[in-house]
Amino acid sequence: MFVELRDIVRALDANQIIPFFQPIVEIRTGNLKGFEVLARWQHPEHGPILPRNFISLAESNGLIGSLTQQICQKAFLAAKDLPKHLTLSVNASPIQMSESTLPGQIHSIAGSTSFSLKQLIVEVTETALHHDLSLAKKNAGELREMGCKLAMDDFGTGYSSLRHLQSMAFDELKIDASFIASMTVARDSRKIVAAIVGLAQSLDLITVAEGVETEEQADMLIWLGCEQAQGWRYGRPQGAECMAAMIAAEPIA
Ligand code: C2E
Ligand code: CA
Ligand code: CA
Ligand code: CA
How far apart are the C-alpha atoms of 27 and 33, rounded to whole Å? Predict the structure, then answer.
């Protein structure tokens, strides 16, 4: 479907942008660690539409704030009784990381939905740090003061800024799916993943592999020392009812 600006405006007005949830697990044990929130547009005729068809359009037309508002509002509400040992990860648009309104927005949605910010991880991509680094750092500091954790998303794809990893005090590093996809067949990718895991360990960051689809990838990641994974092997992004069912199915810790 070809999406125009007015379609997104209408979708936001009609409350059609909803959160899906994808599980993140500890690779070695398969234990659930949390969920990443991924936006879906529940279109009345075209069904769930993927973010690549609307996120950048929303970003370039000043609508990303409203989109985040809807997503977080619904996600926090769906996750307000999330067991304390589990986390919820949300994606912050690079544009929002360089605006001063993001921490306040998240704070007020958490307040109104009774969601604990201690369980929130805000995922930021490297591109976020190219817009306005000082504002991004200020936002990161405020989010941190509110109790949130920070993850660097898609690590290895942008201008990998090792300095930012340290100066912004990230808690978690998500290894981009492109490396995981080629890791079991290309020695280069395997070496890169090994190097990223080593770097993360020395900086005390948790590593999360993205796009893990096979047992072979999971085994190699365990061998490389990567701690957590997300991908179809463990579950696709699904609606809030599925998240609740997965939590209910977990053995009591
Ligand atoms: P991302 O943050 O890197 O999210 C991971 C993407 O990988 C998701 O695509 C997910 O469905 C997909 N994925 C997960 N496991 C697998 C797997 O095993 N194999 C493969 N091939 N793919 C897998 P999705 O949901 O289409 O989202 C794409 C991107 O859109 C996200 O990439 C994120 O950058 C952005 N996005 C999604 N939701 C939001 C949102 O609420 N706000 C903002 N600002 N951006 C969002
Ligand atoms: Ca992400
Ligand atoms: Ca990612
Ligand atoms: Ca990505």
Answer: 10
Ligand 1 pocket check for 38: Cβ under 6 Å: yes
Residue 111 confidence (pLDDT): 97
CB 228 within 8 A of CB 207: yes
Give the pLDDT score at 160.
Answer: 63
Q: What pLDDT does 253 receive?
A: 59
Which residues crowd ion ligand 2, with CB under 5 Å? 91, 123, 153
* Other Cβ atoms closer than 10 A to 243: 26
Q: pTM, whole model, 2 decimals?
A: 0.97
Asked if residue 93 has its Cβ within 6 Å of ligand 1, the reply is yes
Whether pLDDT at 66 is above 90: yes
DSSP-based three-state secondary structure for 233: coil
The CB of 153 under 6 Å from ligand 1? The reply is yes
Mutate to test the pocket of ligand 1, among 76, 91, 214 (most ligand atoms within 8 A of CB): 91
What are the residues facing 191 on neighbouring strands?
none
Instruction: Give residue-wise pLDDT tens across range 68-88.
Output: 999 999 999 999 999 999 999
- Indicate if the alpha-carbon torsion angle 44, 75, 151, 167 is positive or negative: positive
Q: Is 65 in the pocket of ligand 1 (CB under 6 A)?
A: no
- CB 89 near ligand 1, within 6 Å: no
> 92-107 as b/e, with b when 16 or more CB fall inside 10 Å?
bbbbbbbbeebbeebb
pLDDT digits (tens, 9 = 90+) for 112-134: 999 999 999 999 988 877 888 89
If you measure from the C-alpha of residue 24 to the centroid of ligand 3, how many angstroms do you get, rounded to a whole number? Answer: 12
Determine how many CB atoms are found less than 10 A away from the CB of residue 116.
14
What is the Cα–Cα distance from 238 to 186, expressed in whole angstroms? 31
